[in-house]
Amino acid sequence: MSNVLRVDMSRLRVAVEAAPDDWRLLGGRALTSHIIATEVDPRAHPLSRDAKLVFAPGLLGGTAVTTSGRTSFGGKSPLMGGLKESNAGGVLGHKLSKLGIKAVIVEGTPEDGELRVLYIAPDGGWRFERAGALAGLGNYATAERLLAGASGKTRAVVSIGPAGEWRMAAASIAVNDPEGRPTRHAARGGLGALMGAKGLKAIVVDDGGVRNVEAADPAAFREAMLAFSRVVRDDPRTHNLSRYGTAGVIKFVNRDDVQSLPVKNHRLGTSPGAAMLGGQHIAALGEERGGRMLPCMAGCIIKCAVLYNDARGAQVTTALEFETVALLGSNLQVDDIDAVARMDRACDDLGLDTIEMGNAFGVAMEAGVLPWGDWQGVLQLFDEIRAGTPIGRTLGGGTAHVARTFGIDRVPVVKGQGLPAWEPRTLKAMGITYATSPQGADHTAGLVTARGVRPETLLKASRREQLIMAAVDSVGLCQFSNPVEEDMARFVSAVHGTAWTRDDVLTLGRRVLLEERAFNQAAGFARDADSLPEFLRTEPLHTSEGDQVFDIDDALIDAFWDFE
Amino acid sequence: MSNVLRVDMSRLRVAVEAAPDDWRLLGGRALTSHIIATEVDPRAHPLSRDAKLVFAPGLLGGTAVTTSGRTSFGGKSPLMGGLKESNAGGVLGHKLSKLGIKAVIVEGTPEDGELRVLYIAPDGGWRFERAGALAGLGNYATAERLLAGASGKTRAVVSIGPAGEWRMAAASIAVNDPEGRPTRHAARGGLGALMGAKGLKAIVVDDGGVRNVEAADPAAFREAMLAFSRVVRDDPRTHNLSRYGTAGVIKFVNRDDVQSLPVKNHRLGTSPGAAMLGGQHIAALGEERGGRMLPCMAGCIIKCAVLYNDARGAQVTTALEFETVALLGSNLQVDDIDAVARMDRACDDLGLDTIEMGNAFGVAMEAGVLPWGDWQGVLQLFDEIRAGTPIGRTLGGGTAHVARTFGIDRVPVVKGQGLPAWEPRTLKAMGITYATSPQGADHTAGLVTARGVRPETLLKASRREQLIMAAVDSVGLCQFSNPVEEDMARFVSAVHGTAWTRDDVLTLGRRVLLEERAFNQAAGFARDADSLPEFLRTEPLHTSEGDQVFDIDDALIDAFWDFE
Questions:
Q1: Which helix or strand (DSSP H or E) is residue A185 part of?
Q2: Tens-place pLDDT, residues B405-433
Q3: What is the pTM of this model?
């Protein structure tokens, strides 16, 4: 059983269609990007009736493989104008796969402009309800009401907050974690605005306790799974993530030679206050305050999500990620981790990308809208976003939008999307990834921290990592499980009854990148879209190894696409 | 004598350089576009230190040829991101040529962030003064103070209003008319923001009563001039312009078969109230109220500028153009010409492009920011623009910016620039011009009103007109003098002592288009930049000749660039 739910918001109907044969070995990002590339006019406005929002579990969704339950969301990006894939953890992916749903395609826009909730039942039944009192609510209240006492494990709630309802270009889509919190976000690229334009406040998926997907070759599957779990468990990176979460990396990025911590709208690469933002400090606070590490989905053995409590022991957030801490913290000259946690919660509740908002506030501070370090001012401005006031709309429009509003020329975006924390001036392969990825400035598209090697080597490393990550996002694994090609080939073969090799995995990755790039070109991205903001080439970081700018030649960057 | 003034705003110095030999037969748009293309990194941010603002008179500047005193302004567009040329009438162009100034190139940004005025004296002397109390003033008060009793004929004031100071992407650059009013604007593409980013409030040019440029072949020049003046004078189009101004065309565009009057954010193409906005009505009011027709520069025999008084006889504006009346009038469902005149004056004073603002307010009304027809609300919002409040900044950011702010998907822009009044659904050649012109949605780039002919014929007509207009903008003539290639060849030959044929004129036009396009491509414009907003292809206009959408094939549009 492998179905596609086609959700027609114009006629308020859901059609259950058998998935085409040639989608069989596509999942996650490979499938969402393929559907958008083949079904959406690249020139359609991202918020128009002709736009589509797609989501799909990965090829390993519904199995017991650790971290395999991620869900890809795809569409033409309201933020960037290109083909966007943004994936999230949480409980959705496994449920879709277990219900035999290979993809959900949301089309059209409601004639009456009303906001609705779509319910999907275990038996394939569906119904729409008016959002009613949910309209305008944050993701926390929305998830709580839609869970209605059900466990976050048995029910998935996919929702947008006010930012998505306002169709803001920095709006995210939230998915709940196993404890019911709406803290796992398909954050990047403004897909929350696309969901808002479709008139969907939320989608609720119950799996009715159905069992895992059965592998075509159970013995091979079991063997692969045990081996993979062992490798993940023994990986020192796992140990760090399990203890300190993703913010544990601040110790490394804040080093004088690395300088990969954005400070003051990416002016500096280190901060004396960084230790107060680091995972080690968060873990120490957690011991005092009753914090703990959580899995974001069933079956994850890494558990890098941080349940963060305030000084009185009240829960604030479960997603205090490195990127969030860097962009909403050091980038704004805030080194109070409690303040960052509150800003993070505001983003989760409003349904906003923390990376985009950290950059947007950085530019707003550069413009003098509020002083550096003024996190109370940021919290007040989140209220303006909630209310949809002009300044709120401006900020919710994202980094480039704020820069244009205030006439600022230091604009930390690539292809219209705000820069992640990883610094292209010192970690130059990251610049190559940001420049070439069809996903714009996206660290998850291909994270390479190599330094001190030849540009050609960096290019190859970025390319290899981007191919692998495109495959990882397509099988639905979390990047923190660090699968190699052979892992993915073995799993896909065992689950789907095929005989994949590592080459097939790379072929899948290549297909994804090329299909996304072709859409982007048809949608209007030219060579310059593959370049970094001017200031990264002209304003050096003063590191212990000398002044560093991003100085990789365009010609070399263009060679990225010389795939075999 | 043929000099270039290089104005270094970082060091507050002006260098007088001899113009390179190969610039000898470049002027106006050909020269500004060439300087930007060769001196500015296409990837530089339009507001950065590396950006440049250039202005240049045409090849016939400083002569007595009627309408030959236009000035081209060029830069990387803060609105569009591509190579912009925007030209204006007024008294500047002739003065520059008479002083032997072939181009002014403004570079750098002031270290202290202060706003300044640059004075250029007849003897080539220059000085900077702090803008002081001029900062924040509108163009009217600025021009009045900087003229300081001098005649608008002997002194040219080039200035920005608050919009340019705020670096808003819809900001224009104002040039005074012979009576000293700042009503001639290089309006399109946001070059006022570029001037603001350079820290220049105004440039004052005195010509000291110096004589006209002498032609290399005075006899041939005189003969050509007399012939051309006769043709212009006898042209029925001149008669209409001289009597009714450019808004006289409303009678034609409002016809049921033509439907080229934007109504309600380009939803409709005709309006029952159109006659109240037309040139005939304006002329009739002028007779009652003491209005009159004016030349915008010395030596113009067309005199299409309308001095418009209010009901009490007080001057409101001298630039009540068709585009202004259509975009700020019918497009906003306003058919009170007094209201339009007040909005026009607000745009001139704030330094804003009326076409861009008409589109921006249309989108704002679509978003419910204010009701259709609410011109009082528009005037209040102009005050917000003046004050630089968040909603003011949003509106001043232009059409696409407002659309993104409010999540609106009917976005009337091409290459980021708001649509002029001329309607691509009925006048399909205009769609070809908007799509292909390196200047984006710009009716002056190639105005073709042919209907009922084959698409291939429309394409050829658009191409021919764009080549001619690129030449017209380079010799510095007004399009309303309707010069043909032979006119321009004869004038350039006589003035510059060369032997141009019509082919040389077309070669100049071709050079301009190709140089601008190459810059745009390097700056990030791909195929999709050459397409019209979705709604023009999907929402028909119901004309007396049937439903009309813009339905020219992309393949045909792409063939535009198959020159020869």
A1: strand A184-186
A2: 999 999 999 999 999 999 999 999 999 99
A3: 0.94
